[in-house]
Request: fold
Amino acid sequence: MKEPKIKNFTQELSSIEKFESFKKQKVIIDNCEGQAYITKSKKEFKLVYDGVFKYSTDKKIKVTIDTLEYTFQSIGFKEPLNEIFTNVSAQHTFDIDKVYKGNINKVALFRMFFFDNSKSTNVFHTKLETVKNDGINTWAFDCVRTNVNQNKYDITQYKNNDKSYFVIENLVASTLKQFEEDAYAIQKGIGFLIGYMPGGQNYIFSEENFIYQRLARKSLKSIFHPVTSNPYSKLHKEKNIADSYYGKLKVIPIEVISNFIKQIRYNEDFSVAIIFLMEVSHLKSVVSMPGIFSVILESLANIITIKQDNIEKLIKEETIFKNIKSDLNSVLDNYTNAIDKNAEIKFRRKINGLSNSINHKRLTNAEKLRQPFDQLQIKLSYEDEAAIDFRNDLLHGNILMNYETTRTSKEIDNKMLYASAKLYTLLSKLILKNNGYNGYVINHAKFYNKNSKEEYFEII
Reply:
């Protein structure tokens, strides 16, 4: 029989839909004679049992549902601290943390299913390079293929009737532990790149066997994402401007996606920074975002920067420096009558110090924040430089960045949103460029201050 080219999730979805439909479904518990049923309430499975419950030291019990055997796991199945509650007939309600059907703890091909709460169709389009049929692996229309340390994975947004799922699957057999660790890195990586990270609960299948589990981290939806290949999606009211970007913007290539996910997988500090970034973007807190984005910027600077211990002379040609110094002093001469004498002296000292060498062992905090941009050759505009300096305001308690200027609540919110968007754009540039991306990123700040002279999309 010829191997089908299009992905088929029918078997797994049938099992999921059957299990998800349980409402007061009768359950037979091994070694328990009472009445039991399982039901799903507010996205969580609960086991209700009336009788003498036999507790388990490993927090697992074996059950039968419609002749099929399962194992339920719950922290509530553990022996109670007070023995008075054992061997007492009562009605119990347990939150089910995990469900096992069969044994999947072996080297195998796995498929992890998340419920898609993004409320978006074709979520990868215009953001990520999608997979093409390579003649070997099956494929789908809304699918991204990535490598994690030479292990191939597909991430698919799959529609079935009125439901949508995210599916992560390995194309090369691995252990369950490796699959889960790789899949978690993929969740975070894809989450940042498209602005939505699936979470909450999932099913992991190996053929007909599966594990269902409740996850502590729910799905996260960011108000930002770094890249789009469709300028009209952001500039639907400014068609003429969008026309000028048409054909220039592009999706993030598979190679960059793979590099990014690999860095998350094997660099714990980087992984924490990305999930922190997703969480605060999900909360959409106008006050929190600038401060936390500044913290993340500092963290990424420490992670990305290649350590240097040399002394760098900015202007090596003494003649060139003399000409620059002369020109700058000439400009200052034009303003000597308009500025304070002390200010003039300080300006001239700064001009003389422009050619001072930089000792990379003794950088200021401001210089350290700018160093990864310099090393990656990311040009910083005046607005970028100002955004990086937001850190100083925030660390010194000026969380509203008001500079002793009276402003309305709306003006404060707009300022905070602009600062957040500018810092997010800087973070995007660092993350993408560090993983091999060359192209345009969305300058989210411009959309919060359209009167600025910045561009809507900036190239790195």
